[in-house]
Amino acid sequence: MRPLLRRIARDSSGASLIEFALALPIVFYMGGAGIEYTNMARVHLQISQIALDLADNASRVGLSSNLAATQIRETDMNDVLAGARLQGNGLGLTTNGRITISSLEMVMQSYDTVPVQRIHWQRCVGLKSGTGFASSYGTTSTTAGTDATLANAGTTMSTGMGDTGYKVSAPTGAGVMFVEVNYTYQPFFGTMFVTNKVMHYTASFVVRDLRDYAQIYNPSPAATRMTCDRFTS
Asked: Cys staple from 71: which of 57, 63, 142, 154, with CB 3.0 to 4.6 Å?
């Protein structure tokens, strides 16, 4: 037995296999973490770009006319929201998140005596609801902006919208399209590396044209209003 034990003790033919077996869990863990965090960085970038594109598109759309100011319509808002939905389709953006777009305006309406900054109307898309997905910076009624009356004037926002120190205000006589995107990150490896991560991005663009700010129009055939009491994907 002693010679046999000595041969076994000197035998190093399986050393590499044993070392590989011991290192494999660490390699898998580090590789999985690298994949997860790289993907999360990619999704952060994609969500940020969607917010920017949506604000940019919303600042440009409307029914243009050489004889009158551009009218913003419900169908225009539906189109830009549909574009954001398609852009985030690979992420399941509207299934796992919520988009809110606000028309922040500093305008003197027919019922005002001076320009007033307010959220004149908001539109939303996405299935998620509750804390972390509703607008963080102000809300307004579902009927706000649907006609040119004081009852539907919207919500006064004298200090603008956004985080403290980074608030956005509309230029006098004009408006800003302010977009919020909240999205629950869908990890590759469950909760091993990331747990309940909600990505939050905002973007804003000043309206590019001479817009009619009296209301958001909905001419016949009327389009579905994507008001923020609706939760659709």
From this structure: 63
Structure confidence by residue, pLDDT tens digits, 65-102: 777 899 999 999 999 999 999 999 999 999 999 999 99
SS (H, E, C) the chain: CHHHHHHHHHCCCCHHHHHHHHHHHHHHHHHHHHHHHHHHHHHHHHHHHHHHHHHHHHCCCCECCCCCCEEEEHHHHHHHHHHHHHHCHHHCHHHHEEEEEEEEEEECCCCCCCCEEEEEEEEEECCCCCCCCCCCCCCCCCCCCCCCCHHHCCEECCCCECCCCCCECCCECEEEEEEEEEEECCCCCCCCCCCCCEEEEEEEEECCCCEEEEEEECCCCCCCCCCCCCCCC
Residue extents of the structural domains in the chain: 14-217
How many residues would you count in the chain? 233
Q: What is the pLDDT of residues 148-206, one digit of tens each?
A: 999 999 999 999 999 999 999 999 999 999 999 999 999 988 888 888 789 999 999 99
Count CB atoms within 10 A of the CB of residue 200. 15
